[in-house]
Specification:
mainly beta; three-stranded antiparallel sheet
């Protein structure tokens, strides 16, 4: 895929999920607390957050190696004053 935008945000460490819902398989893990995100889409509300999820690549592949740890983090894991994060496009497949 090709992405022409990204943002770098502070974030919590955690699991990257295959899809934008809480019970989706974990495909990667973020170990850093400042990561880049390329787009957003809506999905399940997670951990009391709204329903925005952010597409990124994890630092570690946990399962499904073909995904190369690409997947979604819930908005509750990003530190932003608003969601979706200003300047970040909606995922084209969302």
């Amino acid at each position: 895929m090709w992405f022409d935008h990204d943002v770098v945000c502070d974030n919590s460490r955690g699991d990257v999920r295959l899809q934008s819902f809480v019970n989706s398989p974990v495909v990667g893990r973020i170990h850093t607390t400042r990561s880049w995100f390329v787009c957003w889409k809506t999905g399940d509300g997670a951990s009391g957050s709204d329903n925005f999820w952010y597409y990124t690549q994890g630092d570690e592949v946990v399962s499904r190696p073909s995904t190369a740890a690409w997947g979604y983090l819930p908005a509750s894991m990003l530190q932003s004053d608003s969601h979706p994060v200003p300047g970040l496009p909606k995922c084209s497949w969302a």
